[in-house]
Amino acid sequence: MAEEKSPQPEAEVAEVKSPSSNPNAGESGTPAASIENTPSSDEQQATDFPSANAPDPTAANPEVNPNATGDKPTAVGEKPAAKKPAAAAKAKKEKPPAPEDKPFNEFIEQEYLPALKSALAEQGVKDLEVTFVKDKIQISGLSQNGGCWQVRGNWQSGQRQFSVYFPDEDINKQKAFSCATNGAKASILESFMIDERKVTLDLLVFYTIQRLNAQKWLAWN
Hints:
Blueprint: H1 32-37, H2 86-93, H3 104-122, E1 129-135, E2 148-155, E3 160-166, E4 176-181, E5 190-191, H4 201-214
Antiparallel strand pairs: 1-2, 2-3, 3-4, 4-5
Helix pairs in contact: 3-4
Protein name: DUF2996 domain-containing protein
Pfam family, one: DUF2996
Organism: Allocoleopsis franciscana PCC 7113
């Protein structure tokens, strides 16, 4: 008796749809937003997507993010510091001119004479008279062709008198000194401050006081 063969199952046939039946066939699965922000291959364009390496300038803290836009925030109630004009800042750095930078006559009249009076008053000289004149040097036996600027001082009703001479009208150049008592003319013209190359107001007053003290004319003698 012939063996019956079981019928073979029909092969499953996968349904193949034609491209025309699937409207999305062949299209990319990339989201629409990515496609919209993807730059063209022909032209470089910026996108709204933040860089992976740099924080979003509009979202990051401007105090710590150098890429942040806008001004740095100030503390509550604090007003932004006002910017000073460049001219005002420059003027503030400039130092006022030194007394010795003044013209010779102005320096003697405005600086040296007042300072000398004050210094001698501290040494007990109460009736000092000082003048600044251009005249011949009042030295006994000295022949002169012309005069020079000199500071003359006297006190005790003229019993003590001295002169500081400036032949070159310059405190840093040649200077001389003379002194006399009882209204007589001085007999010696001395070099004065010959070792000082750069003369200042303080030095000029100091050396004058020192020279008068050497005559034992001041309070401590």
